TrEMBL record:
Protein's recorded name: Phage minor tail protein L
Pfam families in alphabetical order: Phage_tail_L
Taxonomy, superkingdom: Bacteria
One GO molecular-function entry: iron-sulfur cluster binding
Organism: Salmonella muenchen
Length: 52
Protein backbone atom coordinates (compact mmCIF):
# COMPACT_ATOMS: atom_id res chain seq x y z
CA UNK A 1 0.00 0.00 0.00
CA UNK A 2 2.66 2.51 0.99
CA UNK A 3 5.42 3.32 -1.50
CA UNK A 4 7.66 4.85 1.14
CA UNK A 5 7.22 8.47 0.03
CA UNK A 6 7.40 10.76 3.06
CA UNK A 7 7.86 14.17 1.45
CA UNK A 8 5.50 17.13 1.41
CA UNK A 9 1.92 16.83 0.07
CA UNK A 10 1.83 16.51 -3.71
CA UNK A 11 -1.50 15.26 -5.06
CA UNK A 12 -4.79 13.65 -4.10
CA UNK A 13 -5.93 10.12 -5.03
CA UNK A 14 -6.99 11.43 -8.47
CA UNK A 15 -3.55 12.99 -9.17
CA UNK A 16 -4.85 16.54 -8.71
CA UNK A 17 -2.17 18.76 -7.13
CA UNK A 18 -2.69 19.67 -3.47
CA UNK A 19 -0.70 21.20 -0.64
CA UNK A 20 -3.16 19.93 2.00
CA UNK A 21 -1.65 17.03 3.97
CA UNK A 22 -5.15 15.65 4.66
CA UNK A 23 -5.86 15.32 0.92
CA UNK A 24 -2.45 13.95 -0.08
CA UNK A 25 -2.90 10.33 -1.14
CA UNK A 26 -1.16 8.18 -3.70
CA UNK A 27 -3.25 7.15 -6.72
CA UNK A 28 -1.12 4.00 -7.13
CA UNK A 29 -0.68 4.96 -10.79
CA UNK A 30 2.46 5.88 -12.72
CA UNK A 31 1.43 9.55 -12.81
CA UNK A 32 1.18 9.66 -9.00
CA UNK A 33 4.65 8.15 -8.67
CA UNK A 34 6.10 10.58 -11.22
CA UNK A 35 4.60 13.53 -9.33
CA UNK A 36 6.40 12.30 -6.21
CA UNK A 37 9.65 11.50 -8.10
CA UNK A 38 9.30 7.98 -6.74
CA UNK A 39 9.21 5.63 -9.74
CA UNK A 40 11.84 3.38 -8.13
CA UNK A 41 9.37 2.21 -5.47
CA UNK A 42 6.34 2.01 -7.77
CA UNK A 43 4.45 -1.25 -7.44
CA UNK A 44 3.01 -1.70 -10.90
CA UNK A 45 3.87 -3.48 -14.13
CA UNK A 46 3.66 -2.17 -17.66
CA UNK A 47 0.77 -3.58 -19.65
CA UNK A 48 1.28 -5.16 -23.04
CA UNK A 49 -1.79 -5.60 -25.20
CA UNK A 50 -1.71 -7.99 -28.11
CA UNK A 51 -3.42 -6.61 -31.17
CA UNK A 52 -4.84 -9.15 -33.61
Amino acid sequence: ENCGYDGPPVADEFDKPTSDPKKDKCSHCMKGCKMRNNLVNAGFFASINKLS
